[in-house]
Every structure is written in C-alpha cells, then in structure tokens.
Design brief:
binds calcium ion, five-stranded mixed β-sheet, alpha+beta, 28% strand, 2 domains, Fructose-1,6-Bisphosphatase, Chain A, domain 1, inositol monophosphate 1-phosphatase activity, binds D-MYO-inositol-1-phosphate, globular, eight-stranded mixed β-sheet
C-alpha cells in the first residue's frame, strides 16, 4: 500500500533520526549521559535524534505543536494538531548496546490519535498505522493482533519499574499474579516496541504502569489498527491521562485484567 503524504513526512523524520541513532549506537564512551531520576538516563543520542525529528516535522508541517520527551511541550499556531514524540524509547538498552530501542512518533488531531510510527533502526523494522487505514510492517505486511483466546497459552510483555520508580512493589504483585496464568512473560525495555510487537501478534498482551504519553501514543494507534483493544488498568480509555496501559486482542483483556487487578487488593 503506498504511504500517505502524512506517513511519508513521519517516515522521513524517523529514518533520518534512525541513522543518527545507528551512528551513536555502541559508542557509549563518546556519549554524554546524564541522570534524570531513578533508573532514568538521557544521552546526547536522545537529544540528537529529537532535534532531527523536531526540525523535519516542523519543516513539513510548520504550524503543528509538539509534546516531546526531552523538549516537553511546544505550542503550535495550529491548535488542532500535535506531534507526540519519543526520540529514543529504550535508552537503557541503547546505553548497554542492546539493539532493542525505537523511535516513536504519533499525531494527535483534535485530541484524537490519528497516526503512529514506531521504528527500530537496528532491525530496520518500521511499523506504521493510520486511523481507519490499518497497521503495517515496512509498508508491506499488514499487522494483526494474535488470535489466542486462552490466557494459559499466552506470552505477555510488561515493563519493570525498577528501584525508586513509582509502582515498584505493586508491580511485583502483578507479576506474581500474572505468572500463575500465562505461558511466558517478556520485557524488551521499550514500551513502544512492546506495543508494536503486540500489534504484530508476537506478544499476546502488554501491560505497564506509569508510562508517559510519548511511550504509548504511536503504539495505541498501532494496536487499535491491528484489531486490538487498548485500555488503562481499570478498563477505561484514560491511558494517556493516567499512564497505565493494557493492550490485547480484546478477548484476552476479560481474563487478564482481573488477574492484574487482583494484585491491587493483595497486601504486600
Ligand atoms: C522507557 C521505556 C521502558 C519503560 C520505561 C520508559 P525511555 O522509556 O519505554 O520500556 O519501562 O517506563 O521510561 O526512558 O527509554 O524513553
Ligand atoms: Ca527517558
Ligand atoms: Ca520512552
Ligand atoms: Ca526516550
């Protein structure tokens, strides 16, 4: 399927930033790294990739606003459009030369997520989705969430809030509860990649707490356009507001949500 003008803009920005990340990958000694908070790092590579994406998107769509991980909020003249960008999702992996990290770009129109792109420049896997038009891998293969209906057969991805991060203890209980019901649990270290792989049917489900809009926005469009269901951990559509997310094929949410929620009622 030929890419739309909008998707071409997003792909140009992502590929250019991807080349920058690929150049910096494995060169940790040369990169300036700072600590933003507990287990939260940022490097010159994050900033370089973000600058490229910012300039490319601004050039192609001058009035649009931005919400970017490192720059924060940038108001645009056009109040109806906003890019939501994570220039490097999986910084910890990146700094350890683990080739699992992504660029995540989403577009919001009048408060609705309408397009998403997730790109791993190392595997050269580029995931794209537009509202009502489906989700694709490398412009060719249509994405479809996994069809599994039995929780016992599933492989479920998650993110671990490490020491000092909010939800650390609650997560341990959620993980213990989930492990009793599924065939496998995985953690890639990039929430955007987790969502892309859920859209692609590699993972049956993904849940995580306390994410930021830039970790999830593109992935939400991707999973929805691959036929999946995305909610927060109470089953509502407030992921971007509260940061908690569950993505499944829909059927599995009925089984998995009560399991995750059971951890909230259990004493430490
Ligand atoms: C992180 C990744 C990770 C998730 C963290 C995020 P960053 O984003 O998405 O998978 O578990 O909560 O902060 O900081 O590498 O862009
Ligand atoms: Ca970060
Ligand atoms: Ca992120
Ligand atoms: Ca990031």
């Amino acid at each position: 399927m030929p890419a739309s003008a909008l998707m071409n803009v997003m792909m140009t920005a992502a590929r250019k930033a991807g080349r920058s990340l690929s150049r910096d990958f494995g060169e940790v000694e040369q990169l300036q790294v700072s600590v933003k908070g507990p287990a939260n790092f940022v490097s010159a590579a994050d900033h370089r990739a973000e600058d490229i994406i910012y300039k490319e998107l601004l050039k192609a769509r001058p009035g649009y606003g931005f919400l970017m991980e490192e720059r924060g909020l940038v108001e645009g003249v056009d109040k109806t459009h906003r890019w939501i960008v994570d220039p490097l999702d999986g910084t910890t992996n990146f700094l350890h030369s683990i080739p699992l990290f992504t660029i995540s770009i989403a577009l919001e129109r009048e408060g609705q997520l309408v397009a998403g792109l997730i790109y791993n420049p190392i595997s050269d896997e580029l995931y794209t989705a537009e509202k009502g038009k489906g989700a694709f891998l490398n412009d060719r293969r249509r994405l479809r969430v996994a069809a599994r209906r039995n929780l016992n057969d599933t492989v479920v991805a998650t993110g671990i809030p490490h020491r000092g991060r909010p939800g650390h203890k609650l997560f341990r209980r959620e993980l213990t509860a989930t492990m009793e019901h599924v065939a496998g649990v995985r953690r890639t270290g990039s929430a955007a990649l987790d969502l892309a792989w859920t859209a692609a049917g590699r993972f049956d489900a993904f849940w995580e707490r306390n994410l930021k809009p830039w970790d999830m926005a593109a992935g939400i469009v991707m999973v929805r356009e691959a036929g999946g269901l995305v909610s927060d951990l109470s089953g509502a559509d407030q992921m971007l507001e509260n940061g908690h997310i569950l993505a499944t094929n829909g059927t599995l949410a009925k089984e998995l949500l009560p399991v995750i929620q059971s951890a909230q009622d259990t004493a430490v």
